[in-house]
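Protocol step 4 of 6: record predicted structures for both targets in the notebook before any analysis. Target 1:
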Amino acid sequence: MKYGLIGNPLSHSLSVEIHSAIGEEIGAYPYVLCPLAEEELDGFFAEKDFDAVNVTIPYKKAVMKYLDIISPEAKEIGCVNTVLNRGGKLYGYNTDVFGMEEMLKRASDGYIPKKVAVLGTGGTSLTAVYVAGKLWKDAEIFRVSRNPKGKDVGYASIPGDTDAVINCTPVGMYPHAGVSPIGVSRFPHLRFVCDAVYNPRRTKLILDAEKRGIRAENGLRMLVTQAIYAASLFFDREIDGSAIYEKIRKSTENVILIGMPSCGKTAVGKAVADALGRPFYDTDGVIYEKTGRTPAEIITSDGEDVFRRIESEVVSSLTEKADGRVISTGGGAILDPSNVENLKKNGRVFYLKKELADLIPSPDRPLTSDCGKLKRIFEERSPIYESSADTILKSDCENAIIGEYK
């Protein structure tokens, strides 16, 4: 192995895609994932059969004992995420510093917090405490642990006037999304949230913060930034990575279409997917594949509640991956708040907004089969569509979305 990533688990990692994008800028280089069990570390570092590796959880502290030389900042922080093999000598660095700084600066947007809660006690939390201390010298910065020791505090003891939170735990990470390490509502003074987790893109913590109008930043930018700095160490050269984050974000962000029946979601979705070369999924179509019945047939025979349960299962399964897929939803999918969270966790939600006069009742849709039903559904759902959307499109929807991701 020349270049790669060690850690455990690595099934969620985007590092290969990121280093591939960096390679498009500087020339391609091999980069592979190398999952290691803890008992394999001794052998791996004894063999030294690599040029350079990145290190992720849970080994950022454990690898330090194998290194010959450790950079001053990595030594001060107490963890390493990049190891270079130079003529048989192993050099350790912490490029997470640069990624963490970028994430914190963007989330804080110039605000200087007074009390910063760093959730977790692993290697990433050490980096967070170090960087936050450099950025906000007068802030009270403390780590939060399930088993607090020394100056660490327990989750129940986080001060109520905490105004910044940095999550450095894996809580909320795929495949255990949908849980949050803290209840955001406990902290009325909270100004911003950072989550080092990048899969899913919007964790439960971030979604809860956004619902309350609190600034939030996920770990994708941190991951990309540290990778760029790591590659600059690999090849001993400066790398302009200004376009790489947007390239990764756009290529992996799912495109989600919501809106009233007959607003054109399926047609727009197919056109967008074709133009961008992405997979397309229509939730109603997937329901038919799963059950052998159309939504109308399920609603007519079994009732709307049964249909909504099936629909929620389909939405959950379609939204697990962040692979740039295009998903067109049924008109009522947004009625279940858990569906909205699933749609948003790895995607950008576009509301194709049409006026009532532009919508057409259809006898093959039981819930909007005549003008009266259509009007009632329109009035009921319009505010939910608006509150669920990241972007509202009223015209030229297809070209607007294509232009966003080209």
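Target 2:
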Amino acid sequence: MKKLTLKGVRVLACSVCVALIVLLSLFCFLQDPAVSIVSGESYAPIYKGSEEKPQVALMFNVYENTDIVNGILDLLDDYGAKATFFVGGCWADDNNETLLRILDSGHSLGNHGYFHKNHKKLSEAENISEISNNHSLVFAITGYNMTLFAPPSGAYSKITLQVAEKLGYKTIMWSKDTIDWRDLDVDLVVKRATAVENGDFVLMHPKAHTLKALKKVLDFYKEKGIAAVTVDALIKDA
């Protein structure tokens, strides 16, 4: 039987600790009557930020391709650009270092559910589980309190929106979609990501062709005097 090293013991202990925090958090959310949904209007999704300045927000939905995520971070650093990374919990759990690097580089983190489920079809309890489990995991790893939720595939119901609000989240959609998950074409990604107006949320994913397109996109923004900022910053004054 293979001996467990000290490092292995620490990793195992950390994993157990994170798992316990997630389970405890879920139990507390389910027991808290404040989580029960109520009628209201403030939970409407946000599609765009402030239009007062030449600024856009790059959004990266992340469940895969950690090497490309790191390449995106390298390129953003080169241009002094910021972005928001909406991370899936099952990815974050396996990529702690990259998760921390996102924050250390001045970017923001958003919640993208734990297992990339169709939130439109989920019950109230299932919506709570997907969002809160991811929140607890990311907080345990980074100490960062996510406040922005991007439903996977943009699928949500009224229950999803109400649950997100009750859990302290704003639901974020997008105004410009590069559709890079479907169209594996650098030029198409560039075209869609540069046809922007002030306040646009530009949706991307960590794909190899998207990384190639990103340099051209950032060159265009620089030439046109468009700042790439986080979603948080863009909605702050909206």
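Step 5 preliminary note on target 2. The beta strands are 55-62, 83-87, 108-111, 148-149, 170-171, 176-177, 201-204, 227-229. The chain has one domain: 45-236.
Proceed to step 6 after PI sign-off.
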